[in-house]
Each structure stands twice: as structure tokens, then as C-alpha cells.
Design brief:
Structural class: alpha/beta
Radius of gyration: 19 Å
Shape: globular
CATH architecture of the largest domain: 3-Layer(aba) Sandwich
Strand order of the largest sheet: 6-7-8-3-9-10
Helix content: 25-40%
Strand content: 15-25%
């Protein structure tokens, strides 16, 4: 019997005035799964992630994180998740260690002084422990944000372009770290335009087009769904096929 999903999105709509950003989105993410959230710019990826975080409310629909309704139980939902945006806002005047200390205080993390050095070592930040964040490269700042995200051992991890600014070694480290979090039972959503890297890491994929779901499933299910593509089609092939083909015409009226 499957465990309860850690992420549940039911009939999610988000509008800004007359603009529809997301329309009728439904999906779940189970413990141990890594969902690749992919789509062109403006497809609704970041909107979906921010709504799950409670940064802004859904226009209609229901979003749940670790069993908590994001609208009705925002504090409980936020305690169960971590969100790393594409350009994390760190405090320039704080060191890497002080960021971990601040995160531990906010989330009331016990034993953080034992866990923090492990994270610094895994993310190759040991030598930067006492460096001010204003002196770090973008890739290093990204790693600091990820270390802070991992510190309170969240059940749900949401990443918006987490590989931006990382060098090849940093990308490998990041992929290994995400895999370890999933193996430990976390539910992960990873939004990225780097499709070849997403394909290596994710267990299944959600493809959005103009705010609507056009595919949800594994790479094998995608190849089966789009039968006019080759059987060894890459995620990139499947993505362009799903997002750039013309929608099917409705059947003629009798």
C-alpha cells in the first residue's frame, strides 16, 4: 500500500487580473519521488512552487504539504518544507555558519551544530565556513541556500533552477545530495531548463504548457504516450513534442 502523498495539488488555479498563470493543475508527489517540473518561460512553474510555499494564495483549488492545507495551516506546512528559489536572497553581512545558525533558530532545530558541519562537508563548503556571503560566487551562494534548506530535515523540498551558477563538480554534488534526500523519504520538486540533467535525476516529470498540464509520468510512460516518437526519445525530444505540437481538434459534431 502506498504512503500518503507529501505533496498534493488539486484543481489549482492562479490568476493575476485577466491573466491565467495556472489552470486546473492536479498532481501528487510521494515520499522518495523527485518530480521534474518543466515548461517554457511563463508556463506556470514558479507560480506553482510559490503557491505550495504559501508565498501567495491559490485563486481556487487546494494545496497540501505533508498533510497540511497550505491555506488553512500555513505555519505547519511551511515547517515541513524548504524552498530554494533561482536567486536566493542571502544576508551579505552574515557568514556561511551564521546563516546556518539563523536557520536553526527559526526552525528550532535541535542538534544543529552536529548536523551543520556534515552539510558543509557534503556541499563542499567547509573552507567557506567563516566567509561572508557577500564575498561568495553565485554558485557558492546557491550551495549555502541549499545547506540551509537541508538543515531542518524537511519532508518536502522545492527547488527552482537549483543548478544555475554551479560548476560541473557542484552539479554532481547537488544531484547526489538531492538523491540522498529522496532516499531518506523526502518528496522533491525540481524545476529546471537543463533537461538532460533533470532526466538523469528525476523519477517522473510534469510538463506544463501555458499553465496547463500536458504530461505527468515517468520517461517510459512519456515514450508510450507519444507513440509517434522513437522509443529511445530523450526528455528533450518529449518536451518539445508535448509543448510545441498543435492541440488536437475536437471530433466533428454528428
Amino acid at each position: 500500500m502506498n504512503a500518503s502523498p507529501l505533496i498534493q495539488v488539486e484543481d489549482f488555479h492562479k490568476t493575476y487580473g485577466d491573466t491565467v498563470a495556472v489552470r486546473g493543475l492536479n498532481f501528487t508527489v510521494q515520499p522518495g519521488e523527485i518530480l521534474g517540473l518543466i515548461g517554457a518561460n511563463g508556463a506556470g512553474k514558479t507560480t506553482t512552487l510559490r503557491a505550495l510555499c504559501g508565498i501567495f494564495p491559490a485563486t481556487t483549488g487546494r494545496l497540501r504539504v505533508a498533510g497540511h492545507d497550505v491555506a488553512r495551516e500555513p505555519l505547519q506546512a511551511k515547517r515541513a518544507l524548504a524552498y530554494v528559489p533561482d536567486d536566493p536572497r542571502l544576508f551579505d553581512a552574515l557568514t556561511v555558519w551564521e546563516h546556518l545558525q539563523l536557520t536553526a533558530a527559526i526552525y528550532e532545530v535541535s542538534g544543529w551544530k552536529e548536523r551543520a558541519p556534515v552539510l558543509l562537508r557534503e556541499l563542499e563548503l567547509e573552507e567557506k565556513r567563516d566567509a561572508l556571503c557577500q564575498d561568495l560566487s553565485r554558485g557558492m551562494r546557491q550551495k549555502v541556500a541549499i545547506a540551509c534548506a537541508f538543515l531542518h530535515a524537511p519532508q518536502v523540498l522545492l527547488f527552482d533552477e537549483p543548478l544555475t551558477g554551479l560548476d560541473p563538480r557542484g552539479i554532481r554534488t547537488m544531484k547526489e545530495a538531492l538523491g540522498q534526500q529522496a532516499k531518506a523519504g523526502a518528496a522533491v520538486i525540481l524545476s529546471s531548463h537543463l533537461l538532460s540533467l533533470v532526466e538523469d535525476l528525476c523519477t517522473h516529470y510534469l510538463i506544463l504548457r501555458r499553465g496547463e498540464r500536458v504530461f505527468l509520468g515517468s520517461i517510459a510512460e512519456a515514450r508510450a504516450a507519444f507513440t509517434d516518437l522513437k522509443g529511445d526519445a530523450s526528455l528533450e525530444d518529449l518536451f518539445f513534442h508535448a509543448t510545441e505540437r498543435e492541440p488536437a481538434l475536437p471530433p466533428p459534431l454528428p
